Amino acid sequence: MSNVFRDLLKKVGSGNHTCESLTRGEAAIATKMMLLGEATPAQIGAFMIAHRIKRPTGEELAGMLDGYNELGAKLKAVAFDRPVMVLGIPYDGRTRIAPISPITALLLASAGQPVVMHGGDRLPTKYGLPLVEVWQGLGVDWTRLPLEATQRVFEKTGIGFVYAPKHFPLTNSLWEYRDQLGKRPPFATMELIWCPYAGDSHIVAGYVHPPTEAMFQKALSLHGVTKFTTVKGLEGSCDLPRDRTAIIGLGGTSARDNQGLIPIERLHLAPREYGFTSQNTPLVTTAELINQIQATLAGERSEMTQSVLWNAGFYLWLSGICQDMQAGIMKAEELISRGLVAQKLQEISQTITSISEPTFQPV
Known about the structure:
InterPro entries: Anthranilate_Pribosyl_Tfrase (IPR005940), Glycosyl_Trfase_fam3 (IPR000312), Glycosyl_Trfase_fam3_N_dom (IPR017459), Glycosyl_Trfase_fam3_N_dom_sf (IPR036320), Nuc_phospho_transferase (IPR035902)
Number of helices: 15
Protein name: Anthranilate phosphoribosyltransferase
Pfam family, one: Glycos_transf_3
Strand order of the largest sheet: 3-2-1-4-5-6-7
Distance between the termini: 57 Å
Keywords: Amino-acid biosynthesis, Aromatic amino acid biosynthesis, Glycosyltransferase, Transferase
Shape: globular
CATH architecture of the largest domain: 3-Layer(aba) Sandwich
Helix content: 40-55%
Radius of gyration: 21 Å
GO molecular function: anthranilate phosphoribosyltransferase activity
CATH topology of the largest domain: Pyrimidine Nucleoside Phosphorylase, Chain A, domain 2
Strand content: 5-15%
CATH class of the largest domain: Alpha Beta
C-alpha cells in the first residue's frame, strides 16, 4: 500500500463537507501512481469513484494531463503548414448517432489540414462503436501499427491515429476499473483534451455538460494552450449536431483575463440557416455505417451527406482554409465530387500496407 497515495485519496474522498481538491502537482502524482500501479487496486478504485463524486477541477485536469504527457506516447512534430488539429472524442464510443469525424478528418487532410485522432477499442462504460473500428471497416487498420509506423503514415498522408492500447499501454490497466465501477471517472474528461502530438496543435474537444467546458478552459490555460475549440457535440464528440444549434467555444481569441484564463468566444451555428435539415444520421449497424460512408465518398447524396458537409464546412473554416462556413461547405462538396477524399482514404490504406509489408533482401 502507498501511504502517499492514501493521503491523496483522503483529500478527495472525505465527504461533501471536508473533501479537498488536489493541487496540479498532487493530481499529476496520483495519475502517475495509478498508471504505474504504485497504488493498490483498492486505492485506485476508491480514488476513481471518490473523484467522480467530488467532481474534478480544471487544475486537477491540468495535473492529470501532466501525468499523461510524462508517461504517454506522442507523435513527433512535423513541419506542416498549419497547426495539427487534434480531435478529442470519448473513448467509449457511439451508440445512437453515426460518427462523422473520420470523414471530417479525410476531408481536412485532403485540403491540406493535418489531423490527429486517438482512442481505443470498445471500452467501458458505453462499449459503443469506437473510431478505430470505423477506420478498419474503411480498410485502414491503425491497431497493428507501432508508433513509429503511425508516424510515417502521419507524415505522408496528414492523418495519424494514436491507438492507446498499443501506443500507451499503461492505460490498459485502468479500463478494468472503469468497467467495474460502471461510471466514467475524471480521466474520461481529461482524455478529451489530451494532445498526443509534440508539435504545434489546435485541440478540438467535445463535451456534453456545460461545466466541462469551464474545466477545459482552466486546464488548457494552465498548460499555456492558446489554440483550442470546444464543441457541445453529438454524444460528447466534436461532431456538430443538426437537430439543434451547435454551441461552439473558440479559445485564444484575445489576451488572458484577470484570472489568467484563455478567453472563449461563443459561436452559435444553426443548420437551417445553411440549408440543412434538422436530422442527425442514426447509427444502426457498423456494416450499414460503413456502406453509408463509402456511398458518401463516392458522391451519393443522403442524410449523411448533409451531416458531412455541415461538419466539414465548419472545420474547413476553423482551420483557416476557407473564409467562412458557406465557402467551407462548397469546398467540401468539391473535394468529394472530384474524388479527392476517396483518394485520401486509398492513400492511407496503401501507405499502411506498404509500411507493414516485409522487405525481402536477395540472397
